[in-house]
Design a protein that fits this description.
Strand content: 15-25%
Shape: globular
Number of strands: 12
Order of helices and strands: HHHHEEEEEHEHEHEEEHHHHEHEH
Largest sheet: 5 strands, mixed
Strand order of the largest sheet: 5-4-3-6-7
Helix content: 40-55%
Number of helices: 13
Radius of gyration: 22 Å
Structural class: alpha/beta
């Protein structure tokens, strides 16, 4: 019974009742102490305590296995974490990548239960993808020994802006065979569950907000610097989508109107200069073999001046683009994701110098607490797929 009740609370349109608000915050943030819940929701501690007792009795909430770090309930005793009952439901996250599909199954307490990946040829079709997705879901749940009836919803991270009004993928430069596809309808027909979909970079930002470097931070900018460039803007704990879902597409800001043609159809986009695709092409010609981002980083660390220069030039252009973003939103925190973030100081030092050079407000103009911090993201491996899991945990019943 508690499974149906939990599902009902998560889907409740009106979030006024304390029980609904507590269930939702636990779904969004994972294990929390009663004190943390009261602070986040602005509820009296007595109200939270009484409501948690009711939710425990109903089987919807259970005590965590470990105390919440660095929290105290008084008299030197650690506060006990509470979380949604792991048996109450599961969610699926899917990453539709350029050459692969990844699936993660997690329960409502945020525990990852399964992680699968299938490599594919470039430009695979939506129909081919659906057959693989259905197989991955079936295999994952069979191996876990649990029923797909526990599946509350499916989140989809995909390479292009998703129109929030009709679910259609727009300007899908990374996966052109998917352009114009109604992502919601396609996946709902295949999986018969509520579908939540968004751009890969926005899903990465969700993962950082829920489990990574932006945990507990409600205002930040995320920038992905890899073969391409993408991003996301988070304000008051919510992603900024824009009227057509294209907010945060930093890679397609025009740097040079007379520049080369971008995959999006415009000229001189930031991605052409701050993305690392051109750099890997140069490195491949220089060394006479295929070179990836991590190959270039490895040689730069060994002292190769040319590889280091490729990283520094890319960082300089990324910093210039970030300064344009900074002029619009002046963020306190910028997270850098993608494989270039793994280059460490040889990427971040020129990036920060370029950002300061092209920003209106310089570092020396303001006190340290008023400066924009630029730091590497933490969810560098499975961030996009985990963000797809987060789409369901944060938005179930509210698409």
């Amino acid at each position: 019974m508690y499974k149906a009740e939990l599902k009902s609370l998560l889907a409740e349109r009106s979030a006024g009742a304390p029980s609904t608000r507590i269930v939702r915050v636990l779904s969004e943030r994972g294990a929390l102490s009663g004190t943390q819940i009261a602070k986040i929701l602005g509820l009296a501690k007595s109200t939270v305590s009484m409501t948690l007792a009711e939710l425990r009795k109903a089987g919807m909430v259970v005590d965590g296995a470990a105390p919440v770090a660095n929290r105290s309930s008084g008299a030197g005793r650690p506060a006990t974490a509470v979380m949604l009952n792991p048996e109450a439901g599961t969610v699926v996250g899917l990453l539709i990548g350029l050459e692969h599909i990844q699936l993660i199954v997690a329960d409502v307490s945020h525990a990852v239960l399964a992680d699968k990946k299938v490599e594919l040829e470039v430009d695979f079709s939506p129909d081919a993808a659906m057959a693989i997705v259905q197989r991955l879901v079936r295999e994952a749940y069979e191996e876990l020994g649990i029923s797909t009836d526990t599946m509350l919803g499916v989140g989809v991270a995909i390479g292009g802006p998703v129109n929030p009004t009709n679910g259609r993928l727009m300007r899908a430069g990374a996966i052109p065979t998917w352009e114009g596809v109604d992502v919601y309808s396609l996946f709902e027909a295949a999986l018969e569950r509520p579908i939540y979909a968004d751009n890969v970079s926005k899903c990465w930002a969700i993962a950082e907000m829920m489990w990574g470097a932006a945990h507990g931070i409600e205002d930040f900018v995320y920038m992905l610097v890899d073969l391409g460039v993408a991003g996301a803007i988070v304000s008051r704990g919510h992603l900024i989508d824009g009227v057509a879902g294209a907010a945060g597409e930093f890679g397609h800001m025009t740097i040079d109107p007379q520049g080369d043609l971008c995959r999006c159809g415009n000229r001189g986009c930031l991605e052409l200069y701050a993305g690392f695709k051109a750099a890997t092409t140069m490195a491949s010609k220089r060394f006479g073999r295929p070179m990836g981002i991590m190959d270039v980083i490895a040689l730069a660390r060994k002292g190769d001046v040319g590889c280091r220069r490729l990283i520094e030039d890319t960082a300089e252009m990324a910093g210039r683009g970030l300064a344009m973003v900074g002029a619009a939103v002046n963020p306190g925190l910028i997270l850098i994701g993608g494989r270039l973030a793994m280059a460490g100081s040889m990427f971040f030092d020129p990036l920060e110098a370029s950002f300061d050079k092209y920003s209106l407000v310089k570092r020396h103009d303001v006190a340290p607490e008023a400066r924009t911090r630029i730091v590497p993201a933490k969810m560098l491996e499975n961030g996009a797929c985990m963000g797809a899991v987060g789409l369901v945990l944060r938005h179930y019943g509210r698409r």
